[in-house]
Amino acid sequence: MLRLLGALALVALVGGAWGWWHLHHWLPPRADYPVQGVEIGAEDGALDWSTVKGIGADFAYIDASASASARDPNFVTNLEGARLAGLQVGAVHRYDPCQPAEKQAANFVTTVPRDADMLPPAVELDMTAEHCLMRVNEAKVESELMTFLNQVETHTGRATILKVSDRFEAEYGIAARIDRNLWLVRDRFEPDYAGRPWTMWTANTRLSNEIADGDLRWVVVRP
């Protein structure tokens, strides 16, 4: 019995190790998703962008701003580095439903240059309003988000991509309410929580690598 229990424990250990390795090294097949890239922020540290391109990135979405006043300190450096390496670039704003849309849009437009060569801007919708000091209902979240989108799109001249997490979608059902391209997130398996097709998919949020301080967020585009 002890030998059997030991063998089962060993199998579980090996299986767990393989699962961890697979998750941290898996990439969607290039044959199925020809266009692939990364999302990068200050937490990734200083990058060798030629190496990022070398591992297969065609584009980089770069964290630019968050809420009403926060800005990614590496945005300008990352933007310039990615462009010099020949990657297409776009900018991401992390939306805060507790803060006024006008202030968040102002934060984004003063951080991100008006540039027709950039990819469409993306807004990350993950934070919910449950911890706001003042109550923000579902209708308010939608109306404020539309204000943000209108102001950002006036600045960029491009429709914004909604990067919607599963918890935000479960809370507000925003994918059915706002007609924009979707960027969904789910490790390893294609996401379906938005109720309609996605345009971009973060397929691995924990891709192990030697070019960043932590795990990379690997993104693909629907063919």
Features:
single chain; alpha/beta; TIM Barrel; eight-stranded mixed beta barrel; 7 helices
Describe the structure.
The chain has a single domain (2-221), classed as TIM Barrel. It is 36% helix and 22% strand. The chain is built from 7 helices and 9 strands. It has helices spanning 2-25, 49-54, 75-84, 101-111, 138-156, 166-172, 174-177, and strands at residues 36-40, 59-66, 70-71, 88-94, 122-125, 161-164, 182-185, 200-207, 216-221. The chain has an 8-stranded mixed beta barrel with strand order 1-2-4-5-6-7-8-9, surrounded by 4 helices. Helix 2 links the parallel strand 1 and strand 2 (59-66). Helix 4 (101-111) runs parallel beside helix 5 (138-156). The longest helix has 24 residues, at 2-25. The radius of gyration is 19 Å and the shape is globular. Residues 7-22 have low confidence and may be disordered.
